[in-house]
Amino acid sequence: MTSPQLGRRSWWLLALLFGIGLLNYLDRQTLSILKATLKGELSLTDTHYSWLVGAFMAPYIVFYVVSGRLVDRFGTRASLAAFTAVWSLANALSGIAQGFGQLAGARALLGAAEPGAFPAIQRVMMTWFPKERRAFAWSLLSPCTTVGAILAPPLVAALTGWWSWRLAFVVPGIAGLALALAWWTLDRDPPRLPEEKEEPATPPALREILRDRRVWLLLAARALTDPVWYFHLFWLPGYLQERLGVSLPQLGWIGWIPSFVASAAVMATGRTTDFFVARGHSPVRVRVTMFALAAAFAPLGAFTTFAPSVPWALVLISLVAIVCQIWFFGQGLLVADVFPRHSAATIAGLLGAVGATGGLLMNLVAGPLIERAGYVPVFAGLALLHPLAAVMLWRARPRLVAT
Question: What's the pTM?
């Protein structure tokens, strides 16, 4: 059976999704890059910073579930355009905040809107790309978040150095509003895919989805692994500046390296898994094997605080970034392999909410723990989470393919 040809609009939408995912991560990372600057400008402590992270994460968790249901109910055109517009406005508002309270309010609005991007992306990939082409398209899209993380340090540093820290929030916010308008214009009249079945007009009830044990298995894995990524996302730029003496301009030059390396690793991993799936191997087994191999490198992250220099610290941070990004990439494919399209966005939302809950708890504990005991116990504990999740998925992989 030949693979169906994709229309030009599918590729334009993929390009727009790349830009939206890029901005999603760039916008959330701006605060962490400017942590040291804002501590001086707004008189913040590490505990205050933990509260700012919490102000973002609490609505992020709630609206991950809500946004997944909205995507399955109303489709991707209206929902993704609205999510992108609202979080871009919230990011711009962060740039005009005059104190801790206003900044916390803007971060809360950002947290409410940003999670909707990922259930929407899950649904778009299953709507516009047939299963024969989906892994390839997803491999092209998957680096979008890491590219956002790559661009964030030099872009934020440049905007802050050329003008002020406020424009580091405002300029990406304006760009996001333009992307939201472009998405609303292009996402219409999706194709009917060859494998597409007649689906209910409304998604299944949440309680029906939660009866599936496979959903709970993936939720448990996500709860274990996401705290690692959220800690690295929100705390590593500050760690490099405050503990290793990296200046903000220097961070702009080196802060992109872990994300760049992780992006390249994800692309290679995607091609490798496609090779085995195309030769008749079970997609679920291939994904779980990929998770296990990546998780084997996670314990090296425990040695980050013992790195004798910035280059060695970047090597260890990059290894952990590779592990985290391979798991994120594989989870989207695993949901598409196991579950039907009409419930995929809801399941993606549930996974994101549970993972973000773990990230919120980690970050609320991190500030006081780092102030009292330093970074060593944090890095050591996080190094165990991916291996634990990998063991759990490997033991339960027959259940993932059960109907």
Answer: 0.70
